[in-house]
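User: Batch of two.

Assistant: Item 1 of 2:
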Amino acid sequence: MVKVIKFGGTSLKNEKSRHHVLHLIQEMIPQEKIVVVVSAMGRLKDPYATDTLASLVGQTLVKEEKDKLLGCGEIISSVVLCDTLNKAGIKAKTLTSYECGLASKRFQGHDLLYDLNVDKIHQAFLEADVVILPGFQGVDKEGKIVTLERGGSDYSAVFIAHQLGLDEVSLYSDVCGIYTADPKYVIHSRLIAHISYQQALDLAHHKARIICEEALHEAKTHQMKIYLKSTFMKDCFTLIDHETSHVKTMGIDFDYYLLDKDVYQDDEEIFETEIGYMAKKKDSNVDSKDKFVKVHLVGCALDHEDIQTFFEEIYPIKNEKGSYFIRDEHALHTVNLLHDDMILEE
């Protein structure tokens, strides 16, 4: 039996975290053959993290050249994990995107995966119990590395699982799954045991970083189950599938600003409110009083009376139901109040 699992960068960043990965894999074999999809190790400022590698070059470098650099992160990660497993007596083998025929192509402005040579995976299993593949990348028809969008390792894992004929995939990270709000900022947030593709997509679309949109679209298309699990805590997870859900949750996204006289750059995503237009903060010199946090509610929404009665300086986004901006200096207090009153309301 074959199983596909994915580990995020925080699960692989150092020897201690990789020990947890090792322990999880040891529990799965020899009953199952494991395909492990990996992200680059760590996060920004960690030596081989994607954002760290990206910081080595300028913004003007063309994507084809930058992809050669960014693609190294997952390859390094896969080889380091392979070494960890081999030292523990587990037969593991790595395959690059080129070696396993993980093919990508450009479609409507996005780099998407479209093929995998599954025979190469099965051949690798003749000499190994664990096959490790790099996430976040594929190869084009010329054999060049192409990196995917942020969170692309989730998408890689779902795609690979489907290509192998599986109906589920487990994505491991440093959190247990989807919460009613980000537990880093909301004190009373609760883990959600189950959520539908539709509600998860709504959350992902509004910048909740627990899973990428493309992974959800891929799973929804093929009716696959996604389990979001923690590398570091047992017996807690969120299941995402086609079953209808009516959960209440919220996404929180930081660093927006009020535009000056409706002037904005062509590449900015603009949001209209009653006090003006907002965009993602790019200028580090923006005055703090003009900074905002974006909140998106899933499964519930505020009406005008709620806003007037209970909350100060919260501004609905026009033509985007359930989305609001909150002034940065009030954000944490208001977000917690909003969560407890709207999300936890019985």
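Item 2 of 2:
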Amino acid sequence: MKTTPHNKRKFHRLVIALLALTLVFASAGTASAKSRHYYDPGDLTVEEGVVQVDNYEVPYIETGTQKYWRGKTVLFLHGIAFDRYDWDEKGILEDVAAAGNRAIAVNLPRAGFAPPADVDPGVFLKDTIDALDINPRKLVVVAPSYSGFYALDMVNDHPNMKLAGLVGVAPKDVENFEALSKQQARKTPTLITWATEDNRIPTNDPELGAEALKAKINKSKVKLYESTSHSFYFTTPELTQEFTSDLILFTKYPKLSLKWVF
């Protein structure tokens, strides 16, 4: 067969794709998140601070210093019963930072089981991201339960914003989330995680569950965890480790991992 520039380009793309897949599957086959550390967790510092967003002070905790931020920034939100410290106490913040990322957990305003009346959740979260000096193109947002009000609303409110990734962890407000166009979905690689038998938001609920959200974000994927707990990622060391490993893999290879792993 005659060699042409077109054939050469196709061959090069094939080689690159195979190399990328090799890296993805090698990462996926690693059992422990800790074994994929690029840095010794002992070298990481834990820092706390506060940013002002509208009328609210938003406290945050982050790990690492700028020399470790060679990967992405992972922003951890929280469910109604938790706060920023839980991500640190479970070791997830440290593991994600040690894999070469900037890891930040914030506290969100809340009034009972919903955002305060004077808060526009999507605008508030985007303003928080700006206040923390985060580039959305390098940002992976982890949004469990209650924080779905903020993360899903932000995605709808900012159709031109490109995120590195979104991890929905049984997020609330799926029923009010507007389906993304294919173009916007390409800008928002999304991994949807849920317990197999969630005791608060049934996984298979046609309006609130995992498949309902998946149907609204083209090419998103669902990963289920064997648990009955709504907060499965905190319930046992095994599930925490599994979730953390998946998060590290998704953070490093968002689109490839969605296509070939999850």
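The chain has ten helices and eight strands.
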